[in-house]
Design brief:
The chain is mainly alpha-helical. 72% of the residues lie in helices and 6% in strands. One of its GO terms (biological process) is DNA-templated transcription initiation.
Length: 181
């Protein structure tokens, strides 16, 4: 399959085409993010978000440009957004020209927040149980047991790219279940 053909099929929601594009460009996007973040986990998370966003918006792709360039641009924008969010959590203020200090925002949960979190977790677990068992398993391994993609790949005895695609699909299906309820 060629890239142009895969893009065309992906626009028609062909999962094989999505897998082909993911396999073809994963290393490029991941390497780009690894250079930017200098952190393997952050690079992996941003790369997954990149493909998720790209596949959601594949209809907006302009074929006058290279697909790789489009993916890298999406990836760069996701990283910039994350950096901005991180900067907003710590306010850098100064008393005068010489003394600088960091005013750290207190993000510790209140008792009400803890109750809400417990209720949300219960609802989330209920929604996860609505997924097919293999999707439940991959979500459990990644987010509850906090295994890396490599560890999940070894646990399930599947290629790492299959694990990434399965996790991506599981998150999309879970998001659809959550928005319905």
């Amino acid at each position: 399959m060629e890239v142009k053909e895969a893009i065309s099929k992906a626009k028609d929601n062909n999962q094989i085409a999505f897998n082909f594009l993911l396999d073809t460009y994963w290393n490029d996007v991941y390497a780009f993010q690894l250079k930017r973040t200098l952190n393997e986990n952050d690079a992996e998370d941003i790369t997954i978000q990149t493909f998720s966003r790209a596949f959601d918006k594949i209809d907006t792709y302009n074929e006058d440009y290279k697909f790789k360039t489009w993916l890298i641009t999406i990836s760069k924008n996701i990283h910039i957004d994350l950096v901005r969010k991180q900067k907003n959590t710590i306010n850098n203020t100064s008393k005068d020209n010489e003394d600088h200090y960091f005013d750290i925002i207190d993000n510790s949960p209140t008792p009400e927040d803890k109750i809400i979190t417990e209720q949300n977790l219960a609802n989330l677990l209920r929604d996860i149980k609505k997924l097919k068992p293999h999707y439940q398993e991959v979500i459990n391994l990644r987010y509850f047991r906090e295994l890396s993609y490599k560890e999940i790949s070894e646990e399930l005895n599947e290629p790492i790219n299959n694990v990434k695609v399965k996790l991506l699909r599981a998150k999309k299906l879970l998001a659809a279940i959550i928005t319905k309820s």
